[in-house]
């Protein structure tokens, strides 16, 4: 954005210089027309005087004036050509700056689109995270209820002592394994006695 602002300021400066140069060109063209009119007037005056007077000194003076005017016109034309070249260079510079501004604007738009895509993905991930947390809480709650039921079933059997403190998973597993082993032993004993 800073580079774009700098380019826009540079573009405004170049356009201002271009307008000033065009104004100078118009002034030079006006002066050139005036000089040409003066040259035509002097030429007409020269012709009139030559026809009327045939005076050598007057002819030389008029000729010197004509020569001076031609030199002035030549200088004005040269300066006008320089102004035209400057205008062309400024127009080329303005075109290049406009192209740079356009490229930077497109780059900024691409960055904005990428940022919007990243933000959208972040929002989606955040939503998925919230859903995962909710699901995890639900699973944790179900697991605790299931664990509580296992503990209740395990220690409600005959001969089991009700735990006085919170049990670890290993202690619950050992108690269940003990009950299972006792039932298997009891089943084996019954089988040996022939009881179905």
Automatic annotation (TrEMBL):
Keyword entries, A-Z: Coiled coil
Keyword Coiled coil: yes
Chain coiled-coil ranges: 4-45, 73-131
InterPro entries: CC-FHA_domain
PANTHER family the UniProt entry points to: COILED-COIL DOMAIN-CONTAINING PROTEIN 27, FORKHEAD-ASSOCIATED DOMAIN-CONTAINING PROTEIN 1-RELATED
Protein name as catalogued: CCD27 protein
Species annotation: Nothocercus nigrocapillus
The organism's taxonomic lineage, starting at the top: Eukaryota, Metazoa, Chordata, Craniata, Vertebrata
Gene behind the chain: Ccdc27
